[in-house]
Structure formats: C-alpha cells, structure tokens
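Exercise 7. Given the components listed, write out the predicted structure of the assembled complex. Treat all entries as one system.
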Amino acid sequence: MARRALPLTGAHGRRSRRGDVVGMSVLTVLLVAFPFLAPPSVTNVGVYALIYALAALGLSLLMGLAGQVSLGQAGFFAIGAYTQAVLVTRYETNPVLASVAAVTVTMTVALLVGLPLLRLRGHYLALATLGFGIIVTVLATESEFLGATSGIFGVPKPQFNARTYDSTTEYFLLLVPVVLLGLLLARNVVESRIGRALGAVNDSEVAAESLGVDTFRLRVQVFVLSAAFASVAGTAFAHWLGVINPNAANFPLSVSFLLMAVLGGVGTVYGAVVGAFAVEGLDDGLRRLIPELVPGAVGEVQLIGFGILLTVIMIFLPGGLHQLWTTARRRLSGSDLAAGGAPPDGGPAPAPDDGPLLARESRAPAGTPLLEVQGLTKRFGGVTAVDDLDLTVHAGEIVALIGPNGAGKTTAFNMVSGAVVPTAGTVTVAGTRVEGRKPHVAARAGATRTFQNLQIFGSATVLGNVMVGRHLRSRAGLVGAALVLPARREERAVEASARELLDLLGLGPDADRLAVDLPFGRQRLVEVARALALEPDLLLLDEPMAGLSGAERRDLARLLRRLRAGGMAIVLVEHDVEAVLALADRVAVLEDGVRIALGTPDQVRHDPAVIAAYLGVDPEDSTAVAVAEAGPGEAR
Amino acid sequence: MVDLLQLVFAGLSQGAVYALIAIGFVAVFTVSGVINLAQGEFAALAGLVAISAAGSGLPLPAAAVVAVASVAVVAVLMERLAIAPVKRMTTLVSLILTLGVSTGLKALMLLVYGPNAEGLTPITPGGVTVGGVSIRYQELWILAVAGLVALAVYWFYERTLAGKALRACAEQPVAARLVGISLGRASLTAFLIAGCVGAVAGVLASPVYFTSWESGLTLGLKGFVAATLGGLVSVRGAVLGGLLLGVLENLTAGYVSTGLRDAVAFLLLIIVLVARPSGVFGRHAEARV
Amino acid sequence: MSLEVRGLAAGYGRLEVLHGVDLDAGEGQLVAVIGANGAGKTTLLRALSGLVPATAGTVRLAGVDVTGSGPERLARAGLAHVPENRLVFPTLTVEDNLVLGAYTRRRQPAAERTRVRDRALALFPRLQPRLQQAAGTLSGGEQQMLAIARGLMAQPRVLVLDEPSVGLAPRLVGEIFTALGRLRDDGLTLVAVEQNARAAFAVADSVSVMDRGRVVLHGDAATLATDPRVTAAFLGGGVSAEATDASDGRH
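Answer.
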C-alpha cells in the first residue's frame, strides 16, 4: 500500500505533465458537460460527489504522501462547514471571505491537533484521529452556540453579481473550477520536492531522514493541507445543504471519504474525484435498490456496499481504480515501460581514470577533524552494546569499523548517523552535536549514510532516488510547490545535477528505470549516488560490500578512493575484512562493544587480540585467553 | 458520597463490558498485529441475535449461547476470508480491511434487524438499594459473568498449551514457527477468542445499555481505548483499562455533563497515546498477553 | 545420511545469499559450519529449516526430500533449529518454553515427554532450579541452554544451531560445546554454525568453511584445525584465492 501510484521523477514527471494537460482538459469537458447531460436528480448526486471529492482528495494526499490514515477527516469537514455557517448566518460575512476564514480556522485546528498526534504512528494515529472526529461531533452536539443537535439553519445559496446559484446545474458548475483548482494544487504538491520527499519517507523513513528530510515537519504540513481540503468541502457543503448539524462530523462520513480515496487509488489526485463520483453513485443506487430487494429496509443500508467494496478492494486491488487503469495501459502499450534502452547489466564504466571525485572549494582541508565521537555508550537493558567508544575521523581519510558478530559495530554506526539514541557520550559532526538527534540533523551538518539492507526508495526511479538526495540543496516549500511557478526552475536544476551525478557513477543509462528493477549491486550504487547527491563531507557506509560481486567490489573500492582524494571523509562498517584492510587508512576493531584496536591495516592484521576476537578463543587454551585479556590493554 | 459510590458502581459494570471488548482487541493484536475495527460489531451483533432469539421464544441462556456461537462463526469467517488471504498486511491495509468488515456487518444488522435500538430482557429483572446506591441485578450479572470470562481467558493464556502457543506467537513468531506452531492457526484462534469475548460483552450489555446496529461503533472504540490504556498487550491491562475508563466516564457524566461522556474517552485516548504509548499500566511495549 | 544438502541456493528478495551449498551430516555426527560474518551461514540454516524458501537445490532429511517445506512441517519431520539470538519466549517460564518445544509431540504420552525433558535438564542442570522463572530473566548463557533444550524437546533427528557461543563467556562456551559433544555421542546429528572457530574445531567431526555464500573448504576437523587457509578465510590477507582453488580441487 505504501506504493504511490504517481511516478515521482522529473523524467516521468515531464511525460506525465503532458498527460496532465490532456487529463485535465478531458476532465474539464466531462465535468462541464455532466449537468447538461444528466437528469437533475443525478446532477444532485454529482454536486455531492464534487464536494466530497475535495475532502477525499485531501485524505488521498495524506494517505498517499504521508502514509497516514485519518479516520477523522469529517471532523475537519465539519469545522469548515460550521465556521462558514456561523460567519454567514450570524455575522453576514461575504461567503468568499467567510470561506477564507473557515479554511484558516480549520488549518489552525489541524496544526494544533497535528502537532501532538503526528508523533503517533500507524494504528495509533488512525484511532486518535477517529477520536478527534468523535470529539468534534460531541462538542458540536453539546454547544448551544452551534445549535446543539439541530445545528445551524438558513445558510443561503451563494450569490455572485446578483446571481444566485441555487439550481443543481448552477451549483455544480460553480464547484467545477474549485475542484479543478484543488486537483491542480494537489498534483503540483505530489510532483514537487515536498511530494518527492514524502514519497521517500513512505518508502523508507530512515533513509529519507538520513538525506536531510525532516519527516515530522512534512507530515504536519500535509496533515494541515489535507484538513484545508476537507474544510473547503465543508464550506461548499454548508451552502448547498443550507443546514449544518453534528452529523457532518460523523464517523460514517469519514468512512466514505476513506472509501473514495481508496477506491480511486491512494495518492493519485484524479482517483479521488473518480472515487467520489463512484461512491456517491453507488450510495444513491444502493439507497434505491436495497429497499426494493429487502422490503422494509430503511436507513443507511447502502453501507453494506461500502463495507464489501472496502474489503474487496483491499484484498484484490489495493491500488484502487488507478491500479486497474495503469495495468490496462501497460497491457495496451505492451511492455514498453521497460524499453527506454535496456541498460547494460554487466560493465558499468565509471570514468576510467582514478582522479579525485567531487572535490569542492568549500571542503575542509584534509586532516581537519570532521567526526568526533567521545565516550559513546549504548546499553540495552543490562547489555552494554557499545562501551565508551572514542573515535576521530578526519577529512580525506577512510576509517573502517570491524568486529565479529554482535560486537556493536552497527549500533555504534547507528548512533553516529542518528538512527539510535546513545545512552551516553557525544557525537560531533563538523562542529555540530548530533547525538540523540534525528538523522536529518546530521545530514544538515554534512553527514549521510547508506544501509546494509538496502533502503532504496522503491516507488521512485533511479533519478527520483537521487533527486531526494538533493532535498537539502533545494528549497521549494509546500506553498511554492503548490503554485508551481517558483519551483519549476529549481526542479530543472535539481534534475540536471542528479543526472550529472548518475552519469559520473555510470548509472546514467538506468536513470529512468524504477530503482527496484535494478540488480542488487546497481541498487547499492544508487544508494551511494543518492548519498553523494547531498554533497556530504562525511559519508557513512554500512556494509557497502555485502552482496556485491568481485568486479562490483573493485569498482566500489575505486570510487571510494577517488572520493577520498576529493577530500571526503568516509567511515565504513564492513564484514569483508579483506576488502577493508585493503581500502582503509585506519581500522577500528570492536569486540563486545569495546574498541580493542585502532591502527593501520597492517597493525590490526597482526594484533593478537584481533585474531583472538575473530577466531574465538579455545576455552581449553589458556594462553589464548591470556592473550585475549591482555590484548585490549596493549591496544589502548 | 452516595453519588460518588453510585457513579463508581455504574462505571465498574460499564467498564466490565469495555474490558471484555478490550480483551478481544488484545487477543487479535498480539498475534496478528491487526487492530480489528470490527470488534465492536461482534458485540452489537451478539446483542441483536440474542434479542431476536429470545423474541422467538428461546429461553434466555439458550439465546445467549446462540448469539455467542453465531458471532464466533462470523469472527472465524472474517479471519479466513478477509485477514488470511492478505499477503502483505500493512497498517493501512489492516485498518481499511477491518473497517470494511465493520461497515459491512453494521449494514447487515441494519438490514436484518432494522434501525431501532432494543434491549434484551435482563437475566434477573429489578434491582436493590444498598446504602443509598441503587444496583440493578443485571449490573451484578455483568460484573460476575465478565469477571468469570476474563478469568477464563487469563487461565487459557497462562495454563493451557494452546494459550501458551498463542503467547509464543505474540512474543517470538520466528521461534514459534520453529517449534512447529502454525501462525495461521494462531491467528484463527485469536479471532475466535475475540469473537467470543465480544459476543459475551454484547449479550451482557444489551439489557442495560440497549443494542442497535450502530452500537458497535462506540462499544468498539471504547474497548480500544480501554485496551490502549492497558498497553494493548495484556489481558490484565485490558481489564484494568476497561474498568478505569468506565468509572471515569460515569464520573464525568455525573459531575460535568452527560454529553461530554464520549469526549472523555477519546481525550483520554489521545493523552495516553501521546504521553504514555505503553499504556497506563504497561511497563514496556513487550508482548505479554 | 541424516541430512543431505545439494546445491542449495536461497536469499532475500533480489539478493541471493547462498549460491549452491552442499553439506552432509551423517547420523551421530557434529558438523561445524564456520566463516566470517556475512558468509551466509545463518541463511543456510534458515533455508534448512524452511524460514527462507530455497530457490534451487535439495534438502533431504533421513533420505526424505523436504525441500520447500515450511518450518512447521520440518519441525514435525524431525529438524529442530536453535535460532540466532536464542529467541526464547521471554515472559513464559522456563518450563513453559520447554513444554512448547515439545509442541509437535503434544499427542505423545505425558510420561514420554517428561522423560525427554528430564534428559534435557540433565544436560543443562543450571536450568533445573529456574524452571518457574520467566525465560527473559535468564542470563545469556542460560538462555542459550534453554534454547537448545527447547530444541531437544521436539525429539529431533537433526539439531541445527546458529552461533550457540556468541556473546558468551569462554567458560560457558566450553560448557555448551561439551553438552553438544554429549548429544553427538548419544547419536544425535548436529549442525552448528559458529564464529568461534577454535571452539568448533575442538568438538566437531567435520568442518565446512563458508565464504560469500559458498562452501570454500571442507574436511575433517583434525586436518583443517591447523590449516592456515582457515585463518585466511576470516582475516583475509590474500590467501582466499588459494583457498578457493583448494576447494575446487576437492570437488
């Protein structure tokens, strides 16, 4: 489900940008023609579909981009509707001004609610938003000011230029531009730097953070945006129905929003509109059909269709109607998506020379301490995984961290990169203290990492992966992205620099393929490219050699040497001791969380404590025990 | 003082209902990682089945057995048809899936039993006043039966091989498979337990709180709040969470406002989730059951 | 042969970790599989017990082809896997952990299960006084003993162990390997994956050295114990290529 249906990359983006123009035009024609072709009763259903489409669109963004389920979308819908109703009926505010106020109020509430709630994950967030929706219902019911159970009456149909939009056709046509504008904004957000970063968060949160993405901040932003969509829908709803009561915040309404988003395909912008029409049509149809089939059926019987639909979609079509559409299109056009030049799997050719790579004027001169680790300690319960580790890494050197299984290498590494909070000690990256902070803080200080078990962004292309790496080197925010123009030029620059980097690493031919379609070794290289896109001063590599073939290992080693020559500092945790001893300038050996040796590869190779740590100590062999116990003292 | 006692007593009996539903959440969540949003519907369905069975002339205990048995079948079918076929059960999928089942069950109840809320005949009608606190006999029944069922579930997890196997699946699924326990069967058993405890809760609650096709929503949510208060991993926590929630709700209704009763539960949920995700009674987020 | 593995390949998603491994363990033999981190030892065991599906090759257990069976079936067929990091059930008592170890034998007469349990406890007397303690409160060494005892409760033909000595004090390593030796002497077939090469050599009958998903050296423990290529396989230093050649010569 985490898979987003829209491609994220500039390359696909450009292709889909043309598609979007076509799509938007077709949709505009269809929507404008709808009220003239459909009988009034159907147009009435269409009005609700358009209204709900906006709320569903917001939810679809939240689920698709931020990967969060909200079961309280109707709560924001109701806040928008109530604010509008109060302003228009009590204070005779101009409806347009009122709706601006309504959206502002809703967004403020969403921000206040989101700040604590978005610290929760998964089930907990979903249930907490459900709780929020119910609290809104209860407060509306209890508030005399809001008319308690009967609600607020007499919200007039909107008037513009002395023209009242009170027929279904007129109201429908009034809503069409609003919905189209909403679609456009949503599309822009999905395609933007922010959308790309959120997509990355969805695929791998820790990897996105290591590239400098502040996930919490983005989540809150999307949550607020999603609430804004719901609130616009709420204001439109208030004017159309003329009455607003606590039912507007009702749970079943949140469920229909969810159904619309899921049916259309989570994260797809058009899907929400299609889903809204489908669900409203189904709702209307079932309301008529079921009482005919089951005499005496009254009430919300159409819900049975919703229930079955939700279940069936989740089991058989988790991508919603959008998934049907893309599958059908792929069938029609054959397998040409993979075309675009079948890239050579065998011989990548990163420029054959061995010159320095990615050197920069601004980089600290070789020998400057970039990473300083002092007294770093991690205890899990009673177990000390890392014990009082000291390590300094300078610009322009490769330092390796090795040790037997369970020695604490990975824990130490994760504390440096911010994935694990240390029990004690400090980690300083280029003068910034980063211990215990989220990985994006270290990224800002110029340190990023790769992962042992690949954390590739599976829903993006190779280029898309690398563009996420440019997150910190670009600036467009949510608003800029939604309004497109300011962000366009930057997007082009980001894409160009990403392509340049891919060419440099020999990944150019693969740029437009989905990253998950690459062979393992190339995926690993994509991770390195993604990390390099950040322009780091300190590169942290977690078992970069694991799973690579001999040739791939040699290529990677050469790449790392060239980066070192360019002034970068590199720290790697590695199982492949042979490769490490050949590559690193200095090697630190951990055993049981303690640094038992630190020195050049040659010193380490002949250190008796290291040999004992690797081969194990024969319990009967007391001299070996003695060596092992004496070893750490000597090494320090 | 009498007021307070009265409210606390009413809260305990209501809390006992929440506690049973909370046990259902815990049973399923620990084994399959799914928050079953249809848990409340299990209770509502049992109430309605019992009412209609009793209405068609069955004696009360028989009606109760019919209700529990039919809900158990529904729960097992749900696991086989909706949960087991899913290969990659993410949070999003599990939520929407169980929401779908919940919505479908709700509508089915509406179709079959109509929109009106009804109450089952109490096991023993009437009540008694003790020191100014009026007690309905049905409330005593709730406390007694819920207590027995909770004890039985506790005994199952602590003393029987099948129960220990479920705990093993919850704590170390890989090791559980290695000793030969089938995770699929464990999930089925968990849903069976959830169905049974939910159904008992529904039958018990019906005479006092009435049952309609919609009552599952609130019951389910309150049960979830109770389970979360207890850390979502232990039967004991679920029971304590249920009782605490019941009492708090009744105190709010008594001293602040009846209408705010529902808001309290969810406010509490949000506060607990944000401040103490391992629950009020939980120590760590370890799987215990 | 109690366990006969031919050309076994397995991995995770796109990453193939095992590239065609052969392994034989005769009845009453203790086979040690050693190798550096990331050599594929754990994946080998996971593929043997069905936790990771094999993508090629066959596994025969006492002559029966069990390739592709899930762990539940393999447990019943007589293969017990003592997993990496022990994975005892932490809130259950030591006794209950043992009871669950015999899950596949739950229809056996209770007396038979008690006999097996007593034998396991005789092997690890430290567990006896802790039977009613929650397994999570045991020390690392005791948890390892419990994990082995739990595996024995299934009355397996073949017991495979993943790094039984990791993180343990040398004295405990000795204790555990002594116990494994006794089990072998009683006729059980054992396959132990080990980091601690010296401890493994001390008790094993034969040793396979793995590197990068392949068995690069194989032979009886006494011969290999002094072979410099073993050290090379752990610490590198350019001998690895020779080692590969040697193993090619063997096959």
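Discussion: The longest helix of chain B spans residues 2-32. Residues 20 and 197 of chain B are 6 Å apart (CA to CA).
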